[in-house]
Amino acid sequence: MRAGGRVMRILLLEDHARLARTIVEGLNELGFGVDAFATAEDGIGATKSLDYDAIILDLGLPDRDGLDVIGDLRQNNFRPPILILTARDGVDDGVASLDRGGDDYILKPFAMKELAARLRALLRRPGQALGTVLECGNLCLDTVQRLVSVNGQMVAISRREIGALELLMRRARQVVSKRRLEDTLYGLSDDVVPNTVEVLISRLRKRLDEIGADCSIHTLRGNGYLLRE
Description:
Elements: E1 2-3, E2 6-7, E3 9-13, H1 17-29, E4 33-37, H2 40-49, E5 54-58, H3 66-75, E6 82-86, H4 91-100, E7 104-107, H5 112-123, E8 133-136, E9 139-142, E10 147-150, E11 153-155, H6 159-170, H7 178-185, H8 196-210, E12 216-220, E13 224-228
Parallel strand pairs: 3-4, 3-5, 5-6, 6-7
Antiparallel strand pairs: 1-2, 8-9, 9-10, 10-11, 12-13
């Protein structure tokens, strides 16, 4: 599954090896990229080094209660959607997960088509990875037509700057790492030097100022970049 030319990256936390393998293979066939872990510790650790578009979380993990995992992620400003997996008799847990910060839940056993449909629905929500029109203040980006406007007036921005802007707008008020920008915007054949991303962000920051956007890019040294009004 792609948005703006990139593969949607999903984190799966599921300790049942066969079910995890089924989910990974099924979502891979549908175009998603999935990283699977069997413990909460490993999964939470992955979110600190990689940017995920969504999490699929089994509440019955061996090392920690799934509800506490949701709470920790939200307290650490993890904003992408969290889809909960719970047993057929775990409706109360599923409902509780929504109160703790989960976005949706699905009961086991489930059909892969239903899991994928629920995941796509979450990613299509405003501001999420499959949303087609993104807004931040007076700045608007149509991710399908690749058009940028300020106060309803179209403005010219280079293709690569639009790519960086899309990543920042999808994570508005959240840090986007330099590595995520590098991996998403540049292919293996591109000539990428250590300051390539810095130069791109500098150009984009200047362009946003020129066109009168009322949102700006902030640099968090050692962490990445953050877009906010």
